[in-house]
Fold this sequence. Notes:
two-stranded antiparallel ribbon, 53% helix, binds zinc ion
Amino acid sequence: MRKEKVPFNEKIARFMYGRNGMDGLNKFIFGFYIALLVINLILKSFILNYVELVLVGIYIFRTMSKNIWKRQEENRKYLKAQHKFTSWLKLQRSKWTDRKTKVYRRCPSCKKTLRLPRTKGAHGVNCPCCHHSFQVKVQLGTVSKSR
Length: 147
Ligand SMILES: [Zn+2]
């Protein structure tokens, strides 16, 4: 019987069938590994060498893993944390750009962050999400150089 000749990419596809492969968390691990590699070019730390090795190990393990459900669960947690972090970063950026005209306060009922005009004094606020009313105190009014 003649053995059929299988193209290389077909072999890889067959090998990777039923395995986790590349996902968001693996991309992050790989990026982190590359960053450490570059940093370690300067530091030449032997501890970082081990950390790099562990990262590569985790990366290979997660890519080859056949326990897809568990890997997807890890990836879902990672994506959730990443989303939380980028939302926080966005909020910090808008807090900084609006710092002279707006204040940011958290609704005590639904914990949503509200963007309010920076007007000095105590004000009643009605949350647009949960319609809860609460008091907000603003220490400093709109900072303006022209006045
Ligand atoms: Zn609310």
